[in-house]
Amino acid sequence: MPTITPDFLDTLKSRVSLVELVGQTVKLTRKGRDYWGCCPFHHEKTASFCVSEDKDFYHCFGCGEHGDAISFTMKSMNVSFVEAVEILAERAGMEMPKLTAADVEREKRRSTLYDVAERLCRFFQEQLYKPAGREGLFYLQRRGLSDETIKRFRLGYAPAGNAAIALLKREGYAEDLIRGCGAVAYPEDGRPPHDYFRNRVMFPICDKRGRVIAFGGRVIGDGEPKYLNSPDTPLFAKGDNLYALHLASEQARRENEIMVVEGYMDVISLHQAGFERAVASCGTAMTERQIELLWKYAPEPVCCFDGDAAGIRAANRAADRVLPLLVPGKSLRFLTLPDDLDPDEYITERGRTAFEDFVQTSHRPLVGQLWGMLTAGRSLDTPERKAALERDMRETAGKIRDESVRGFYEREFRSLLWKATAPYAGKVGKDKKKRTAFAPPLSRPDGEKAETRMLAAYLLLFPQVAAELVENLADYVPADGKTKALFSLILTAVTDNPDMTADELAEYLKNSGEGDVYARFAAETEMLKAKTLNFQTAKDDILARLKYARRKERQSELARLADEIARADEETAAALWKRYLEMKKDEDLE
Fold this sequence. Notes:
DNA Primase, Chain A; 5-stranded antiparallel β-sheet; DNA primase DNAg catalytic core, N-terminal domain; alpha+beta; 6-stranded mixed β-sheet
């Protein structure tokens, strides 16, 4: 009898569509994200049999039958477990395992390596709270992580020296297990083995079952590389895993959305803020296997990379790599945060709600990312340059294997090219102003204007919060005159009546000549109404937005002062420099 390993079963079930399998026996109707039909295991007239492709199970609310593709095959065909696996393996085009004695030994070794990885994880966790790990703990606390978050992600610390290898030898692990765990380096020049991770904050990497399989480590203080990841081992292949997927899967399935960010700290900060559907690649560019893994949780994952050169390169690589995999309904979306912020910094400065708003309103489709990639830094002022762009567009679309998707991309690219090169594509009425460049909008609202409009929406919906924050809001002066007047009216109203309701504020503004002010901010107020907000969450987000606005204003002032200092005489420059340092100190204190 073949030895059927858990990994084989995981792969098998990932390649078999439960809906298609059950659909051969039961007539299924889609309702929402699930499929319903009459239960094949008991007689019924009302459909109470539910099949969830996302969660990979079926359940009958009538008789209680529950299971996966294997159990459905066993029960519906009256076969044994092994026979059911053989039937599904043939369906999936997989060969049944025929393990040799060496294979069996390898599987045993893998199980033992899980034990080694788990033991190392616990060791690193212990070290974080010992004197040797104090700097690592301080680093995590400075980054704003709570004790609960540190424990949830099982963060730890690898001390200097060879503490890990000493632990493994002291506890009697065999030499081949120590070699295979990925935490000990064996120099090729004959020097003694040593710890792979030293003086680093440790991020355990887990498989989708939550078992520790590898580690990432961030150096404390100076040192290169800044981040170091485990080498490939029998347990771990960088391109096959996603960091924190075991923690992100539940919310990802529930929200039908999953987000990929660049770093481990980005993932952890997002989870701590409640955005638990975030994952990261494990120290490598996104691979085809990772993309297909993401598609199991959402049809259009969001790739949220930093706005610096490295982040743009990462986004472009992901956009190029996904092309051969595209099929109808499956793609990627892209998001670039403003001001070179990463997700961790964005949430710290602006709050969770602002991040959620930005994700929902500012992502761009794959075609927009590709167009930006193809046209970046290019001039289209000659026929030859236009022809070169057309050639590159054809080559890009040609990477798409699916004929239907490829055809739509070719048409979309032709449309974008025409808009970019047609002499009068942008004319309005009789205005024949020539368009020399075009790029699809990134749906990214202007920073200051968008922040002001969101603050106005908060004040309209939560006047009692505005009453409590009158002093904070009084220091905020919108650039737009009409919005400035609206803010002044609202603050006057809530100062006179701190218990004013949103309906009472609407009536007050109408009587003050503002008319239906809610129509001006309909998009923002509807966005807030769709969220679960209360007095405290609204207050926290308003304060975060005000803090961000103050910081941007101070940064603009600092930049202006720096420019004046560069142009001033020695005496004036000295006075301006003193003022600059005072403002910089205030900024650092915040």
